[in-house]
Amino acid sequence: MAMNVISDIAAPQVDLELRGIAKNFGDFVALEHVDLSIERGEFVAIMGPSGCGKTTLLRIVAGLESMSSGQLLLRGQDISALPVHKRSTRLVWQNFALFPHLNVRQNIAFGLTLGRHDKAAVKAKVDEIAELVQLGQFLDRRVSQLSGGQKQRVGIARALVTEPEILLLDEPLSALDAHLRIRMQSEMKRLQQRLGLSFLYVTHNQSEAFSMADRVVVMNKGRIEQYGPPEEIYTRPRTHFVAEFVGSNNIFDGKVVDMQDGLIRVQCADAIISAAAGERPPGKGSTVSLVVQADKVRSSPIGMPGENMLGAVLSGREFTGSQVIYYLETASGGEVKMVAQEPFSQTGRAAINMAMQLYWSPADTVVLRPNIVPGVENMPGRHSYVALGT
């Protein structure tokens, strides 16, 4: 019996479950069979290019948009047909959506005043939430007297005061300047951890997603391309799209020509490149794509077995403050990026149009192979690439 109790305690609790969510606007497919599960107290970020469906998905969860098909469960309860006001979800908008004629206290209390709440209880709850988001001293101020970061806190407090089971955030930091946005990221993560509340956070900003989220969803054309911890998304992209969209990756296309000593050798346009074979290596003659992070590329060898080498010409460089991004061109006209951690004083050592040799480890090379999207095998343009071993 004790063993069963321990097992039950260890089992993760699911806050939100999306099953086969689809949304069509006429002939346009905005969402295509989206499955997603969010555990209790988890911070999940959804990112992707404009038009990928991330905001539509959030609006469906909030009840602001109907779904064409699928099922939506909140802590086991089917809320697919529930109207907005009956869902225990709250949405924080990117433009704050505050009431300018109300002060901070009145804005925060607005959600409570729609129901039957004792005035003393409302005041106590507003005071508690205001202290939590560091607004206690601003409760009597007009909204117009607040900074951007303070307005954002009011929006979050107004959502939290109704005690939702999950908080939905639609690019809540996009209206803030860069410095304040970075500070608010850490504040929001601390708040989420303190509350133990699930956050579903939509953003186009990769640094926001990676710095705050426990897991990241990458969407493209209405589908989820990859879902996992930030470090996995960044270092082990599973599809060609994710490799292009996330971080700063180099992608080489080619065919497998050999496999030996745990390495596959791929003939690419400018060189034969080696990569770790993995558990399910592609066969000889297979078409694959190789993904190498720009910060794994070096301008000098370390003498390891099978180390990759590629010749290129320096075409430009960009100093970003903490690092330098080198842009190089191969003999076939392909672009290669190399990120180096070095002071600004050293960036002028390599002259533009100078020939360079680039090196990286086979272990730092992710192998993607073609995969047909299920159900659309005969449709042109619906091929993707998936990582080996997935």
UniProtKB/TrEMBL annotation:
<protein>
    <submittedName>
        <fullName>Polyamine-transporting ATPase</fullName>
    </submittedName>
</protein>
<dbReference type="InterPro" id="IPR027417">
    <property type="entry name" value="P-loop_NTPase"/>
</dbReference>
<feature type="domain" description="ABC transporter">
    <location>
        <begin position="16"/>
        <end position="246"/>
    </location>
</feature>
<dbReference type="InterPro" id="IPR050093">
    <property type="entry name" value="ABC_SmlMolc_Importer"/>
</dbReference>
<keyword id="KW-0813">Transport</keyword>
<keyword id="KW-0547">Nucleotide-binding</keyword>
<dbReference type="InterPro" id="IPR017871">
    <property type="entry name" value="ABC_transporter-like_CS"/>
</dbReference>
<dbReference type="Pfam" id="PF00005">
    <property type="entry name" value="ABC_tran"/>
</dbReference>
<dbReference type="GO" id="GO:0016887">
    <property type="term" value="F:ATP hydrolysis activity"/>
</dbReference>
<dbReference type="GO" id="GO:0140359">
    <property type="term" value="F:ABC-type transporter activity"/>
</dbReference>
<dbReference type="GO" id="GO:0005524">
    <property type="term" value="F:ATP binding"/>
</dbReference>
<dbReference type="InterPro" id="IPR008995">
    <property type="entry name" value="Mo/tungstate-bd_C_term_dom"/>
</dbReference>
<comment type="similarity">
    <text>Belongs to the ABC transporter superfamily.</text>
</comment>
<dbReference type="Pfam" id="PF08402">
    <property type="entry name" value="TOBE_2"/>
</dbReference>
<dbReference type="GO" id="GO:0043190">
    <property type="term" value="C:ATP-binding cassette (ABC) transporter complex"/>
</dbReference>
<dbReference type="InterPro" id="IPR003593">
    <property type="entry name" value="AAA+_ATPase"/>
</dbReference>
<dbReference type="InterPro" id="IPR003439">
    <property type="entry name" value="ABC_transporter-like_ATP-bd"/>
</dbReference>
<keyword id="KW-0067">ATP-binding</keyword>
<dbReference type="InterPro" id="IPR013611">
    <property type="entry name" value="Transp-assoc_OB_typ2"/>
</dbReference>
